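User: Assemble these into one structure.

Assistant: Restating your components, then the assembled model:
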Amino acid sequence: MENLVEIKDVSFAYEVRPVLKGINMVVPRGKVVSIMGLSGCGKTTLLRLIGGSLKPTRGEVRVAGRATHELNQEELYAMRRKMGMLFQFGALFTDMSTFDNVAFQMREHTDLPESMIRDLTLMKLDAVGLRGAQHLMPSELSGGMARRVALARAVALDPMLIMYDEPFAGLDPISLSVIGDLIRHLNDALGATSIVVTHDVQESLKIVDYVYFMSEGVVVTHGTSEDIRNSKAPFVHQFVWGEMDGPVPFHYSGAGIAQELGLGSSHA
Amino acid sequence: MLDRLAAPLRRLGRQCINAVWRLGYASRFFLFVLMRSGTSFRRFQLVIKEIYFAGVLSLIIIIVSGLFVGMVLGLQGYETLQKYGSAEAVGTLVALSLTRELGPVVAALLFASRAGSAMTAEIGLMKATEQISAMEMMAVDPIARVVGPRFWGGLISMPLLAAMFSAVGVFGGYLIAVVLIGVDEGAFWSQMQNAVDYRDDILNGVIKSVVFGVAVTAIALFEGYDAPPTAEGVSRATTRTVVTSSLAILGLDFVLTALMFRGA
Amino acid sequence: MERTVLDLWVGVFVAAGIAALLILALKVGNASATFNVGDTYRVSAEFDNIGGLKPRAPVKSAGVVVGRVDQIQFDNERFRARVMMNIDKRYQFPRDSSLSILTSGLLGEQYLGLEAGGDTENIKDGESFKLTQSAVVLEKLIGQFLFNKAAEGGDTKK
């Protein structure tokens, strides 16, 4: 099977703080792949590397066979036209209506007549069930609706790769499963490939084909949803079942409480 | 001990380096905005929208302030000039003060706090809510699409606003001096026309307001684009826009005045 | 916001701005009273003292503005001031016309007063008026007045 995205031995550091330490990952065409891990483990950074807005300090990211850090501005923009991205909180343009948000890329990148843009936009909005909300401004939408509009916008140009940055964050249970369903169905209907960055295990395990687990800048384990559920690795087990203490400690590392409270100082 | 003494010096040095770094970054940003202005002219509709936000929405404050400033000038000018028996010269005083200085400067100060701060806050918020990143990911250059039209919209609005400020101000002076106090109307206008030169005074005033327009919009857009993507960062950037552009307006005003009216 | 409504407002705004500029130039300023460059001819005159005369000061004949001062230079050979002025082509003056520097009102600005002479030939572009009268310098007048007073009193204390 051909891989759309290949990440080879990628390291990345903000200034001097290392975020990614030698990541290897492949995303096969047509699949929905999830990247899971704790907050702040470098998942979003990884998406930015794939999108080409960051360059790896070491290693390379290949999208459709081309290394992103070797592209110039024009080629990068050409590549991004085939990508869609759903940002953490939607990132809808607040000065435009729902309709204009979804139509934005068509107006920017194509010379389609306005009537055709209208039809295409309404189709995309219909796909997420929000054709009726086309005249609303982003501030008038609920969180779940905004996320769905952003999803319609991300797939507006029928991209080959769709990236989701925390699509489930801060949603009520109904919106949650609606978005989950949409991710799966849009991917299959468009023949696209999806990367879902999330820490919502239960929801994403229902829809994805393959899972990468990240912790502190390295891939700790990977496998199909089934593999992950049955994994005996202590970290994965703690993560999937949401246990309070385990390899990831409840306490932020520091001096022992006894020492901090001045108990047993006679031993010192 | 030596370390304690060196610390403030080191901090000063770091601040200086930071300031120079920011200046360089701002200049590069400004250059980018100019280089990528093609979009603004190909799709002038975008600029028109920004003229609406920067210019049309600033109209009320500009007109009301202009009227009051003109009226105050009329009153004060009359009080002083009548002591020397030349109350008719109040028209000259009002017109010269407005076209040369107060029109461009006060309009620019108002523009900075009304439109400039709004630009900074808007772009800062767009950055904080990842709208700028989203645009980049959609292969749309945010400098060409978001910053460029705002720059040109502000640049076009500023001289028009300054001209309206001056015109309304002269009318305010007229209201006070002629209608209220009763200075001779003919003398009011003719003395004004004799003293105000359309090149030395009015054109130079327009040039000033164009320069202020460039300064204010460039500062506002840069601060917005450079703002840390947090609520605190955006609010600080907005404050900085008003402070920096006010200082820039007054400083530039001195330089321009020195260049324009030297010896004339 | 409807696009057309927005256009309308911006149109109103731009029109008002341009109108304000025109009002400033025509009603407040002197653009209406200034002639085009092509319609003038240039003459010069020399003065012992120009007082506070400035470039762009009006040249008036019988109280009517007929031209404007263009340039003021110092002639280092004759130690006199040389004033260049542009006169409207519509107005022609005899060669022996005289120029004097006058003040409008007690504290007003200074201008050039042009008094027509009797010569049959008119002055041409590039020529100069010979008859000039310098500006009245207030300090000199006062000095003279005080000196005369002192002389009258016979009090010869220097």
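Residues 69 and 102 of chain A are 29 Å apart (CA to CA).
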